[in-house]
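Worked example 3 (structure in, sequence out).
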């Protein structure tokens, strides 16, 4: 089974679109690790990423979380603010030094009135990201931990997230934790899959860092070794030693 390259990432706003939005948005720079907003906070408008990475995280339990999306340059986040009386449903944190634009609700409406064609491009971007989120929910409900992990790695490669000059993905301790939260699996489950990739020559361990093979080789893994197209199980559960665990 193969996965179309289009499934690995969303569309991104063009330089011309970003230039038009800049005239309406408030620009801000965020140091790595800075919290842009927290779940439950009053939401207003929409953010657009100009540079860096913004991680959206839902806290599941102490020490664990789930990352439904990572917004990179040309993508949006915080779109809850476009609804009435909205509140943020995730935490948003700059994963590295980042720069964003924020369009308040009032500035967004002005943008729609005065730049309708550019506003349509922004709305198309928001809907593309919504579609990608629905696809991720399908994966959580139907794919095994290994399938979700490989698909997540392919998305990371497509988005140039943690990618080295030789095309491999480098996962140190912080990136490993983030991978677990993106896959929606325990560290033990992710470790088992990475060890299988190492045994198959698709990854190696360099001290505390995992080095993952380039996307073309990973895509070959998808085509060659996934025996089932879909493995149906309730969302939030994963198979460990033949038993379903939450």
């Amino acid at each position: 089974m193969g996965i179309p390259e289009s499934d690995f990432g969303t569309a991104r706003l063009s330089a011309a679109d970003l230039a038009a939005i800049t005239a309406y948005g408030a620009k801000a720079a965020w140091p790595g690790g800075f919290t842009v907003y927290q779940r439950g906070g009053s939401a207003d408008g929409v953010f657009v990423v100009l540079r860096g990475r913004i991680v959206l995280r839902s806290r599941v339990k102490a020490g664990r979380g789930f990352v439904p999306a990572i917004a990179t340059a040309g993508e949006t986040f915080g779109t809850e603010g476009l609804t009435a009386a909205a509140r943020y449903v995730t935490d948003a944190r700059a994963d590295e030094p980042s720069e964003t634009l924020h369009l308040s609700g009032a500035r967004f409406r002005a943008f729609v009135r005065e730049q309708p064609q550019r506003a349509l491009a922004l709305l198309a971007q928001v809907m593309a990201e919504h579609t990608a989120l629905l696809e991720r929910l399908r994966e959580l409900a139907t794919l095994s931990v290994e399938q979700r992990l490989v698909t997540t790695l392919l998305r990371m490669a497509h988005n140039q997230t943690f990618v080295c000059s030789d095309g491999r993905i480098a996962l140190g301790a912080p990136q490993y934790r983030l991978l677990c939260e993106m896959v929606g699996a325990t560290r033990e489950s992710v470790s088992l899959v990475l060890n299988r990739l190492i045994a198959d020559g698709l990854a190696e361990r360099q001290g505390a860092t995992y080095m993952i093979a380039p996307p073309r080789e990973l895509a070959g893994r998808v085509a060659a070794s996934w025996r089932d197209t879909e493995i149906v199980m309730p969302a939030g559960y994963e198979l460990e030693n033949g038993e379903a665990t939450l």
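Notes: Residues 144-245 form a domain with the Arc Repressor Mutant, subunit A fold (CATH 1.10.10.10). The chain has seven helices and 13 strands.
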